[in-house]
Design a protein that fits this description.
By secondary structure, the protein is of the alpha+beta class. 24% of the residues lie in helices and 23% in strands. The chain is built from 11 helices and 19 strands. The longest helix has 18 residues. The protein starts with a helix and ends with a strand.
Length: 384
């Protein structure tokens, strides 16, 4: 009798072990959208039946670069782990399109302890193929046009701002013309101020690397060109220019994280050395997600209007303010139907309960709230 009970208990234990390992889903992409995805994944009933066990590294909270969520999927059984590593929209598109090739690293499973580790990065990571990604632009506007990703869903509208640092230029609005000239490697302040004689100091762009969807939208919307090589500079939090001459920074140089870039934009450069032109004092503008722009502004940066139009959610909805992008959820072509990755794709992509539902109305806007639409960042918004 005792033996039979032991065998039955062992069988139940084996059954539970099977249930407890439903699978792991790997997700990458947009750093600008990670906060909204985080809100969706932790909300009971959206993706998981209850609030999941959450492990975070590299930023803390909804700003973490590495995230892992563990729980039972809505309509599922056992335990599913959703691992996220946010590397940028262009990086996410590459990850999903090239799913047979390992493109990304995630928290090692031994470190999934349900703890927010703040700014600390995971000491050990594991290389995995990516199943799903978030992107601030669709694949036709990406550097990775093949192989074609067949499954994608529009899950929100991601919003952006231009900001300036406390430099010699103290204006309140940037235009497409100003942006294009500054992106060529800097331009005299007179281009921005319209004041004759302000030609000895320069305005530069500090921006993102070529894995960024924020960059795709900024370059496309301003008419600079998505694939045009920019001349961007980088400075540290004290306003010290990191690059010495045009040869160093022309090309695809830029920050891999909008959050890191944002923290540098509060630096006062009115008396800083312009290592590119050998003069004292320079100015910097930058393109950021609305969330990262808030970080920059809290650090003493200044928000500026775009083509004379200040940012507001209403201006975005009506098409008056054009610096925004369509947010897409992408699924790798080799994701099997009814697999854990396929289920998460369906749950995140459901308009009423998924990512769209958790757009906060400012950093990200629900598709259903928009009065305008656009096919991509190179087209103008038009009313529905």
């Amino acid at each position: 009798m005792k033996l039979n009970q032991y065998i039955m208990a062992a069988s139940l234990a084996l059954g539970m072990t099977g249930l407890c390992n439903a699978g792991t889903v790997y997700l990458s992409g947009s750093t600008a959208m990670r906060g909204t995805v985080y809100s969706t994944l932790i909300a009971p009933g959206a993706v998981f039946t209850a609030a999941p066990t959450t492990t975070l590294f590299g930023g803390g909270g909804s700003s973490a670069n590495f995230m892992a969520f563990s729980g039972t999927l809505v309509g599922g059984s056992g335990t599913t782990v959703v691992q996220c590593h946010w590397t940028g929209s262009e990086g996410g598109i590459l990850d999903v399109a090239s799913n047979t090739v390992v493109q990304n690293t995630f928290i090692d499973s031994s470190l999934l302890d349900g703890t927010d580790h703040g700014a600390a990065n995971p000491g050990t990571t594991t290389s995995q193929n990516v199943n799903l990604a978030l992107a601030d632009n669709s694949q036709p506007f990406s550097r990775t046009k093949t192989p074609s990703i067949t499954a994608n869903k529009l899950v929100g509208i991601i919003t952006f701002k231009w900001v300036r640092n406390p430099g010699l230029w103290t204006g309140t609005s940037v235009s497409d013309n100003m942006i294009r000239q500054a992106l060529k490697g800097g331009c005299p302040r007179s281009v921005f101020s319209g004041v004759d004689g302000q030609t000895n100091d320069f305005v530069y762009v500090s921006g993102r690397d070529n894995q960024s969807g924020t960059r795709v939208n900024a370059f496309a919307d301003s008419g600079f060109g998505i694939f045009a090589p920019p001349g961007q500079i980088e400075m540290n939090n004290s306003g010290v220019m990191q690059l010495l001459n045009a040869t160093d920074y022309v090309g695809d140089y830029g920050f891999s994280s909008g959050g890191t870039l944002a923290k540098t934009m509060g630096a006062n450069t009115t008396a800083a050395s312009d290592l590119n032109n050998g003069v004292t004092g320079y100015s910097v503008i930058s393109y950021l997600s609305v969330g990262d722009a808030a970080t920059a502004i809290s650090s003493n940066a200044v928000e500026v209007a775009y083509n004379g139009v200040p940012f507001s959610a209403q201006a975005v909805k009506e098409g008056n303010y054009s610096f925004w992008g369509n947010e897409y959820l992408l699924k790798a072509n080799n994701v099997v139907a009814n697999s854990e990755a396929d289920k998460v794709y369906t749950l995140l992509g459901t308009t009423s309960t998924g990512i769209n539902n958790y757009c906060d109305g400012t950093k990200a806007i629900k598709v259903t709230d928009m009065h305008t639409t656009r096919s991509g960042p190179t087209s103008d918004p038009v009313h529905r």
